[in-house]
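hi got a favour to ask and not much time before my train. below you get a single protein, a line of residues and a line of whole numbers that encode the local backbone shape. could you go over both lines and see whether the tokens make sense for that sequence. a few lines back from you is plenty, here it is:
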Amino acid sequence: MTEEIDQFKAIYDIIVTFFVTYSFQLIGALIILVIGLLVSSRVARLVTRTCEKHGLDITLSRFLASCTKIIIVAAVAVICLGKIGISVTPFVAAIGALSLGAGLAMQGLLSNYAAGLNIILTRPYVVGDTITVQGATGIVKEVRLAQTILTDEDEATILIPNRHIVGEIIHNSNDFKVVESTLRVAYASDVDQVTATIKSVLHELGVETNRPPQVGIDEFSDSSIIFGIRFWVPTDKYHQLRFTINDHLFKALLLAGIDIPFPQREIRLLNTNENNAPSK
């Protein structure tokens, strides 16, 4: 029991001596740390505003602002450690050794960061674009160093690691997504009337404000003429507008008297009894 009390007193004396000796240094380090954090936040916001003023996209602006803040905070941390008498040289050596081991253990994570840096610098897409990659389609909500975040019309969040994006084929349609549809009409229909009716519906619904829709004969099938329709809609309203346009097209075709055929089969029954009857 006596030994434990002596150990406690020794620890207590060390703590008291440390605070007595370095009390002013600790206060100064805390003040420098608080000021450094405030300055880093202000400088980061200034960098963001400057980038936006010069027309840089939001992804690159956020990256530059984050890097600036990290550099300032790291410099302030080194100054604070020096104020309380802690040398940063051993820490640098230890960080170097740990970085080597961590790099081998986290190759996948580091490859994501490297790919994210590549995306931010080359900018194959930016926030607000509609992209399709690795079978996933959505609007780019945020580009981080480790991953790209997409969102779709169902408000689902899609997280794609950046190493699965770099080197892959990326379809970037900016803010819009193409709708490819077909429509069957009877061979007796007036082709010009069908084309005009389809374009009229698309015009009434404001589809052609982005780019002109494409309407034309796609195929001649057994029982109908197949019209191909291609038009562009905002990605966040893709299914909503597609269903609305299909509904209006169906009603407009009926109103115009254009026949929408369906597959039919004609079956003939032969009287085989007469042919096989024995002759008298």
In short: The helical segments are 2-53, 58-83, 89-105, 107-122, 191-204, 238-255, 272-276. The mean pLDDT is 80. The beta strands are 130-133, 136-143, 147-151, 157-161, 171-172, 176-185, 214-220, 225-234.
